[in-house]
Amino acid sequence: MRRWFPKSVSTNGIWLALFSPNDVALDPIGLCQALGRRGRDHGVQIFERCSVEEVLVDKEQKVVGVLTNQGQFETGCYVDATGIWCGTSRVNKLPAGHAIIAAHPATYTYLSTKRLPDKDIKSSTPIFTHVDEKNYLFMDESRTLCAGFTQDDFRSLSRQRILGQWTVPSPDWDKFYPTLNNLLNRCNILGETECGELVCSAESYTVDKNPVIGETAQVQGYYVATGFNGQGLAFAGGVGNLVAGLVCGETLPVDITRLEVTRFIDLHASSQYLIERVPEVAAKLFTNSYEYHQYQTARNLRTSPIYHQLKKAGAVFGEVMGYERPLWYTEEDAEGCFLSRKFLCQRSVIHSEIMHT
């Protein structure tokens, strides 16, 4: 590991590292422009400053057109891939006045500053991501980006007072300080650069850390592609290809069952549920989740009539579609006890052994 990073980045306490030499870091603006040019080369028309005012639906709940500030367009398919604004397009024929999607935006904060004063930093210097300290450091010959991904680093946006209008708060240096302090301990010359700019932005997250793709059950012809959990640009090309296949009725080359928009129930799209759950999901972005991982937030929302008796008897609960069900029993009081990592490892090993016998 020492050979890939400059001496200014401390590797103390790191005993195991994964190096992925085929990964690349791209300029987001440049990538978007390249995708746009590629689309135009294939006949795609791009209308800038064109806002969707309403998705038009007939009596049979089928998309028949789109009303925009530049006129009305007739179409049988509408693809909503608007990130944190997904699901905010007006659909008057629906009870809520818009499609309900189980995704919600959360803010994240990062520091952007100039190149670190280290001559060993090159454009090929890998991105440093520490999954235990929960921070990352991007260094090249022109700039430096750094951020953290603890649960405290993410904040769900408040409910919208006006549909489609989110309010992203200003960056908070006090909240960013714990992350900055950890980064300074790992790379002390970070303190020798100019103050830089603290940026607060927002991404769309889902309740299970998987994107939401497919045709909604609410309106025929209304497709969504959102909830990329901070990885939208990395997924853009592949997701665009999948959505195009869905719209054209083609057989997809991969199974997207775990990404289907219809995998959620109404509870998962509740703003109260999403606001509570999303920061925990966002904090898991750079961590390894076990197959039977159980989230701690937004729990005990659906329980059986004998839930308290089971809990008193020592039941340890897991969540399935928002419903709390007992997984096993312990002789000790299971108050507030959820799945332990040790149990998850053991269960995964047992499951693997069964599948291979």
TrEMBL record:
Top-rank taxon: Eukaryota
Coiled-coil blocks: none
Domain FAD dependent oxidoreductase: 13-245
A GO cellular component annotation in the UniProt record: mitochondrial matrix
Domain FAD dependent oxidoreductase central: 253-304
PANTHER family: PYRUVATE DEHYDROGENASE PHOSPHATASE REGULATORY SUBUNIT, MITOCHONDRIAL, SARCOSINE DEHYDROGENASE-RELATED
Protein name as catalogued: FAD dependent oxidoreductase domain-containing protein
Organism: Wuchereria bancrofti
